[in-house]
Amino acid sequence: MAKQVVVKIDYLIEKYEVKSLRKLAEMCDIRHAALSELKTGKRRNINFGHIERIAETFGIEDIKEIIEIIDID
């Protein structure tokens, strides 16, 4: 079974009560299009700079709060 790393955009928006994907992009200084592609799975390459900015914005210490590994068929 194959594995895929995903960024938990919906989880972050809900947990930190961010009003929209656009607001998350603004808060983290990440292009809206980049976050949208991560959210929909269209972007396969994860920029660790983006992960760092998300962690800094919300004071996240554990990377598992931002990304997870899932099984895919």
Topology readout:
Elements: E1 2-7, H1 9-15, H2 21-28, H3 32-40, H4 48-58, E2 67-72
Antiparallel strand pairs: 1-2
Description:
It is a single chain. The protein is an alpha+beta fold. The chain has four helices and two strands. A two-stranded antiparallel ribbon has the order 1-2.
Span of the ends, CA to CA: 6 Å
Give the SSE order as H and E letters. Answer: EHHHHE
Beta-strand level of the residues, as a percent range? 15-25%
Strands across the major sheet, in which order? 1-2
**Main beta-sheet annotation:** 2 strands, antiparallel
Shape: globular
Mean pLDDT rating: 93
- Measured on Cα atoms, how large is the radius of gyration? 12 Å
Number of strands: 2
Helix content: 40-55%
Report the structural category. alpha+beta
- Poorly predicted regions are none
SS summary, helix count = 4
